[in-house]
């Protein structure tokens, strides 16, 4: 029996098994691919590519996000490009909007359909790094034979989701390799870097969305979560990343109703003591300004009077 036929039988057997989906996340995706999307793992058609006009429109809709992402894609590619990997960035529908591929590897990846304009949604391509990452809203590694289509089993895909300033998923960051000798251990190393880059893009995009606000950065129990709050000149929290929304019990998606920062930052149940984090931020600003309150206020993006009030609330004096 050929490897392709063996793969097809394995996928269909797991997809129709009453228990496999409960035991394996990959099998659950195979099940969706067959039962929900009506796909055939033996299908040989090439991946679909949208028309150039549609791709241009999609890129225009995310222009600022793509600008923020570009230098971070460059940095990631500098780490993985020499090992024969491509770096791809998609929109929330799984359509590739930007890419980093070496000249020597371009033809190979284009033959796989790993290129700008390609639709890698799970509904279109079944189980794959991009589509399954977006469907399950989590980081995934789909290694070779874990792909749904037999024609995709030669590649490894490592992905992480990126959430927008409103908490909605906005993109998937993908590193793909078509090397036959790609190991699962190497995939895990790349996966850590992909997750870190996705978090960096999410943080930079959030800052770009709230340029007039003061950004409070906190730690999180989830190393892949960006936990940031945007606070305006009136000390109202006007924005929060998905990680911060979860940490503070805020609305998961959409605009936030402004809330006093003290109501949120003073909560004792925060994962790392957020009031202490704010106090530390003020102390650091004062230290950098050699105790000059006016300079520290400018550094924090607040007025001098506001900083005095905050210092009083936090139990800090000018010394």
Write the layout of secondary structure elements.
Blueprint: H1 3-16, H2 20-23, H3 25-36, H4 52-61, H5 63-80, E1 85-91, E2 96-100, H6 106-112, H7 122-125, H8 129-136, E3 140-143, E4 156-163, E5 169-177, H9 184-209, E6 214-217, E7 228-231, E8 236-240, H10 242-248, E9 259-260, H11 261-265, H12 274-288, H13 293-300, H14 304-313
Antiparallel strand pairs: 1-2, 1-5, 3-4, 4-5, 6-7, 7-8, 8-9
Question: Can you describe this structure in just a few lines?
Answer:
The protein has 319 residues and is of the alpha+beta class.
Structure characteristics:
319 residues, alpha+beta, five-stranded antiparallel β-sheet, 14 helices, 15% strand
Can you give a write-up of this model?
It is built from 14 helices and 9 strands. The chain has 319 residues and is α+β, with helices and mostly antiparallel strands. Helix 12 crosses helix 13. The N and C termini lie far apart (79 Å).
Sheet having the most strands:
5 strands, antiparallel
> Which sequence of strands runs across the widest sheet?
2-1-5-4-3
The level of helicity is 40-55%
Helix/strand structural class: alpha+beta
Which of globular, elongated, flat, extended, rod-shaped describes the shape? elongated
Oligomer category: single chain
N-to-C SSE string, H for helix and E for strand: HHHHHEEHHHEEEHEEEHEHHHH
Strand coverage percent: 15-25%
* Total count of strands: 9
Give Rg in angstroms: 23 Å
Number of helices: 14
Distance between the termini: 79 Å
Mean pLDDT: 90
Low-confidence segments, ≥5 residues, pLDDT <50?
268-272
């Amino acid at each position: 029996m050929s490897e392709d036929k063996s793969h097809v039988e394995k996928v269909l057997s797991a997809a129709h098994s009453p228990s496999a989906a409960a035991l394996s996340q990959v099998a659950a995706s195979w099940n969706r691919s067959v039962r929900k999307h009506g796909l055939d793992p033996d299908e040989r058609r090439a991946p679909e590519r949208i028309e150039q006009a549609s791709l241009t429109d999609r890129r225009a809709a995310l222009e600022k996000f793509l600008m923020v992402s570009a230098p971070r894609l460059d940095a990631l590619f500098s780490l993985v490009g020499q090992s024969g990997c491509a770096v791809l960035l998609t929109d929330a529908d799984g359509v590739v909007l930007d890419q980093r591929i070496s000249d020597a590897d371009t033809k190979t990846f284009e033959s796989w359909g790993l290129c700008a304009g390609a639709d890698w949604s799970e509904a279109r391509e079944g189980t794959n790094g991009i589509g399954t990452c977006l469907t399950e809203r989590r980081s995934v590694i789909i290694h070779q034979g874990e792909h749904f289509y037999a024609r995709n089993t030669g590649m490894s895909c490592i992905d992480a989701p990126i959430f927008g300033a409103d908490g909605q998923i906005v993109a998937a960051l993908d590193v793909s390799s078509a090397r036959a000798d790609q190991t699962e251990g190497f995939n895990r190393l790349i996966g850590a870097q992909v997750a870190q880059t996705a978090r960096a893009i999410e943080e930079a995009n959030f800052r770009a969305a709230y340029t007039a606000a003061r950004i409070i950065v906190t730690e999180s129990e989830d190393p892949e979560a960006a936990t940031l709050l945007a606070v305006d000149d009136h000390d109202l929290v006007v924005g929060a990343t998905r990680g911060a929304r979860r940490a503070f019990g805020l609305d998961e998606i959409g605009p936030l109703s402004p809330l006093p920062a003290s109501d949120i930052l003073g909560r004792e149940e925060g994962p790392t003591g957020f009031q202490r984090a704010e106090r530390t931020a003020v102390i650091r600003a004062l230290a950098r300004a050699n105790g000059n309150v006016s300079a520290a206020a400018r550094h924090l993006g607040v007025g001098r009077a506001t900083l005095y009030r905050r210092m009083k609330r936090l139990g800090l004096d000018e010394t």
